[in-house]
Design a protein that fits this description.
The protein has an eight-stranded parallel β-barrel, surrounded by nine helices. Helix 9 packs across helix 16. It contains 38 helices and eight strands. The protein is 65% helix and 6% strand. With 928 residues, the chain is mainly α. It is globular and about 85 Å long. Among the domains are: 133 residues, de novo design (two linked rop proteins) (Up-down Bundle); 136 residues, no CATH class. The two termini are 30 Å apart. Forms oxaloacetate, a four-carbon dicarboxylic acid source for the tricarboxylic acid cycle. InterPro entries: PEP_COase (IPR021135), PEP_COase_bac/pln-type (IPR022805), PEP_COase_Lys_AS (IPR018129), PEPCASE_His_AS (IPR033129), Pyrv/PenolPyrv_kinase-like_dom (IPR015813). Belongs to the PEPCase type 1 family.
Length: 928
């Protein structure tokens, strides 16, 4: 739907309002000279975009190069703050458009909504029986991670949310002139606070800082947004499938934050215990507030309405009331529902005050009434059921339904905590423990099959007494401490606290058997008394080779005598994670995506052949190179049959703030995700998703092979590439930014292989090469389209195959964010002219080739002609991003010329570079 001129004008008004406020703040806080300097640079940058004249670039570089460090910092702060404000204006505009679209289509459902999915399924002929089966297997788990791509401090995020709320007030409330001016005054105060707030952290955030940041979104957005999705699905089913009800828990959240110890030594057993406490504390307090509201609202007198005996019995069984409960009984003797809600609030308060850490560390404490989810659900369900039975369903819907949804969705832990560890870490720990137990020598030196055999033997042996082993290494001590805490948590609070235990860099069955053995030794899994499993395990396949081997590895694992009993105890359900970031770093954008596509198909077949219910866990990041892009399109682009109604997806870094910072945008994102999963889960016979033709697959095989060779030749087989990358990007500065608790490398060794994929992408994004999101695509498309028949087939694939269309459309986004003119500025930082000319020459030629090939394949005249809104936003932003790139290049050149990299002058330059990194990330709405 085209945007009306009125709405575009309102967006412009918001941008001008915020721009005027910022200009006022700059003049007042930095002085008129800085304001005029910023305006001069902005004018030059806008002219640069309008005129292809190298002299303008030279002039802009000259002006920026003459800035002293203080001026550079103030100008960089001006542009950085501008982008933060423009992002808010665009966010409010998106909400405005969504609200108008919903009005326009009412009473029909909004496209890409839950209601639209149910209507489409009904319209395609999905009958009640098939819909019931689909709902039975429906489960979507979105997983927050603390991957260090959120460059903003929580203080800055909170301030920006206040300005966002003020914009919403202006847009949606009928303000009087004086009220409007008061709101603008508040915006001015908040922008001033942004101006005088340090953007860079003085120290790295702790893991618990990151946990609190993640929980911020549960507290402020998700607690209300998720139940709305449940209500919408119930309403849609009521219209099209009136005998069906939605599952109690089909859309949930989990988190890695505080549980992801892969390469992060700061995530200890004690930190995981504190994370569990923070999760539980938020949930208990949110539910307690809801229960207190219920004990005020449910003023139903037994003298005026029938109160079922079950309610009276529940109140009487609680025991002698005291405190607030005694007050309720004395003051409202006939209002039994109020008494029951008060009991619930009292139990939640008692649990909230309990010392969870001490309990997890093994201390004996008094028992709690409120331990597990069922303790919360039982009284809420009783009240809901009895009200409906007594003819008071309206009260149940108004006052209880939301609390009941929140209890089912969030339980007593807000989000399940995933655990993750690097496979080599388990091998090293067990090598030590086996040696100390006298079971095996040299376990770590064995190949994969031999390690699997040793682990199978160990799983069959009686559980050893590990407490007798003294003087263990720090790594082994830490691993045993973690599993001991997990055991206590599961025993007392239930397995609902935890998601899967993920093993990164899984190469074979032995990498899953290793943590399974540690879990067995601690009574979490495969206990001799047949108790339910306390943990499940998920392999993470990341590289091209591992993705190709994944189906064979899983088939071997399913049949393995050490794993098969565990699989049976968990109902033959298996989560399998695939990594987008490392596969891209390993194989390049196009080849990695095709490997992921084929890997998913093969994994689905392997699981079906072994009667295993598979949940694919997509380790996606924010950028295109790391699997980012619109979630709805990404899900619909998955191989037919691979979703099956069950999916897990990571939400990382700055994406969390972008998708879940604003309640309306969070609600829309969740609607789109559920819509896509419902559509993708429909059986093939209903033809709601496209199945690729054999000739499309054959074409993709050729494209992937050519792309893979082009990428590997440049990245892995051209020695000069790493020299170029280290000098032409701000990689060193990014690695020193205090934006996350996790180091930029998985190990201490400074090698390319140890470098994580996130800083790899982050650095290429900053210097506007954005290479991981497009390199290799052009060479593949150009080679295949040399014949008219080849080009025609590519064009057919783009128009008819969601996977291929999504692949090229996402690559267009990366290319639109790239800029070879700006990239050349960074190339000039490379000291060796031969290296500079070689690498930049190849990159810029590949960029031109890729642009031409994509436009030819898509039939577009310009990049992003398929998305005019995004195209317009990119064009609007570029003139304001460019100055930050010019400043960053100038400061990098000065920093590298200093004789002492640790001097006060170097530190000052580095802080301003950090500011430009923040600003460019805000301008591109991406880090990497």
């Amino acid at each position: 739907m085209a945007l009306s001129r009125e709405k575009q004008e309102r967006l412009s008004e918001d941008i001008h309002l915020l721009g005027d406020v910022l200009g006022h703040v700059i003049r007042r806080q930095a002085g008129i000279e800085i304001f005029e300097l910023e305006e001069r640079i902005r004018a030059l940058s806008k002219t640069r975009r309008l005129e292809d004249d190298p002299a303008i670039d030279a002039r802009l570089a000259y002006v920026v190069g003459r800035l002293d460090p203080a001026e550079a910092e103030l100008v960089a702060r001006s542009f950085t703050t501008y982008f933060e404000l423009v992002n808010l204006a665009e966010e409010e505009h998106r909400v405005r458009v969504l609200r108008q679209r919903e009005r326009d289509v009412h009473p029909r459902p909004l496209p890409e909504s839950v209601g639209a999915a149910v209507a489409a399924l009904h319209g395609a002929g999905v009958d009640e029986f098939e819909m019931r089966r689909l709902l039975h297997r429906l489960h979507i788990d979105l997983v927050f991670t603390a991957h260090p791509t959120q460059a903003k401090r929580r203080t800055v995020l909170t301030r920006l949310r206040r300005i966002s709320a003020a914009l919403s007030d202006i847009d949606q409330r009928d303000l009087l002139p004086a009220e409007r001016q008061a709101v603008i005054n508040q915006i001015t105060a908040d922008v001033t606070l942004l101006w005088v707030t340090d953007r860079s952290r003085t120290s790295r955030p702790t893991v618990t800082d990151e946990v609190r940041t993640g929980l911020f979104y549960f507290d402020n957005t998700l607690w209300e947004a998720l139940p709305a999705v449940y209500r919408d699905l119930a309403a849609a089913l009521g219209q099209y499938y009136p005998t069906l009800q939605p599952p109690d828990r089909f859309l949930t959240f989990a988190s890695w934050i505080g549980g992801d110890r892969d390469g992060n030594p700061n995530v200890t057993a004690a930190v995981t215990a504190e994370t569990l406490r923070l999760h539980r504390g938020l949930a208990l307090e949110k539910h307690r507030a809801a229960a207190r509201a219920l004990d005020r609202a449910l003023s139903i007198s037994s003298r005026l309405a029938d109160v079922p005996e079950a309610v009276d019995e529940a109140v009487e069984a609680y025991g002698e009331p005291s405190g607030h409960l005694a007050f309720l009984h004395d003051r409202y003797p006939h209002e039994t529902y109020r008494h029951l809600a008060g009991q619930l609030a009292a139990d939640l308060a008692e649990a909230s005050a309990g010392d969870m850490i001490a309990r997890l560390m093994g201390e004996e404490l008094p028992p709690l009434r409120m331990r597990r989810m069922e303790n919360l659900l039982e009284p809420l369900a009783l009240m809901d059921r009895s009200l409906r039975e007594a003819g008071m369903a309206d009260i149940a819907r108004a006052d209880l339904e939301l609390s009941l949804h929140q209890a089912r969705i969030f339980g007593l832990h807000a989000a399940r905590l995933d655990l993750r560890q690097y496979s080599d870490q388990h091998t090293a720990v067990l090598d030590e423990l086996f040696g100390r137990l006298g079971w095996f020598d040299g376990f770590a030196t064995l190949d994969g099959p031999a390690r699997a055999a040793a682990l199978t033997d160990a799983l069959a042996r009686p559980v050893p007494n590990l407490t007798m082993l003294g003087d263990l290494s720090a790594e082994a001590t830490e691993a045993l401490a973690l599993f001991a805490i997990l055991k206590r948590a599961v025993d007392y609070y239930g397995p609902e606290l935890f998601g899967p235990y993920i093993v990164s860099m899984t190469h074979g069955p032995e990498d899953i058997l290793a943590p399974l053995l540690l879990a067995r030794w601690h009574g979490l899994c495969l206990s001799d008394d047949g108790a339910p499993e306390g943990l499940t395990f998920a392999p993470l396949f990341e590289t091209r080779a591992d993705l190709r081997a994944a189906p064979e590895v899983m088939a071997a694992l399913f049949d393995h005598p050490g794993y098969a009993p565990h699989l049976a105890r968990v109902g033959r359900r298996q989560t399998i994670m695939i990594g987008y970031s490392d596969s891209n770093k390993d194989a390049g954008y196009l080849a990695a995506n095709w490997e992921l596509y084929g890997g998913q198909e093969a994994l689905a077949r392997a699981c079906a052949a072994h009667d295993v219910v598979m949940t694919l866990f997509h380790g996606r990041g924010g950028t295109i190179a790391r699997g980012g892009g619109p979630a709805n399109r990404a899900i619909l682009a998955q191989p037919p049959g691979s979703v099956g109604g069950r999916i897990r997806i990571t939400e990382q870094g700055e994406v969390i703030a972008d998708r879940y910072g604003h309640p309306a945008i969070a609600a829309r994102h969740l609607q789109q995700v559920v819509h896509a999963v419902l559509i993708a889960a429909a059986p093939d016979s209903y033809h709601l998703t496209a199945r690729p033709k054999p000739e499309w697959r054959a074409a993709m095989e050729e494209l992937a092979a050519v792309s893979y060779r082009a990428y590997r030749e440049l990245i892995y087989e051209t020695p000069e590439l790493l020299v170029y990358w280290s000098q032409a990007t701000p990689m060193d500065e990014i690695s020193q930014m205090r934006i996350g608790s996790r180091p930029s490398r998985r190990t201490g060794a400074a090698t390319f292989d140890s470098l994580r994929a996130i800083p790899w992408g982050f650095s290429w994004m900053q210097c506007r090469h954005v290479l991981p999101g497009w390199f290799g695509v052009g060479e593949a498309l150009a080679a295949y389209s040399q014949s008219p028949a080849g080009l025609a087939l590519l064009q057919e694939m783009y128009h008819e195959w969601p996977f291929f269309r999504n692949l090229l459309d996402n690559s267009q986004v990366s290319m639109a964010q790239a800029d070879m003119g700006i990239a050349r500025l960074y190339a000039d930082l490379v000291e060796d002219g031969r290296v500079r000319d070689l690498i930049f020459g190849r990159v810029s030629a590949a960029f031109a080739q890729t642009r031409a090939a994509i436009l030819q394949t898509t039939g577009h005249r310009e990049l992003l002609d398929n998305d005019s809104v995004l195209q317009r936003a990119v064009r609007r932003r570029n003139p304001y991003i460019d100055p930050l790139n010019f400043i960053q290049v100038s400061l990098l050149r000065r920093l590298r010329a200093l004789p002492d990299a640790d001097s006060a002058a170097a530190e000052s330059l580095r802080d301003t570079i950090f500011l430009t990194i923040n600003g460019i990330a805000s301008g591109l709405k991406n880090t990497g």
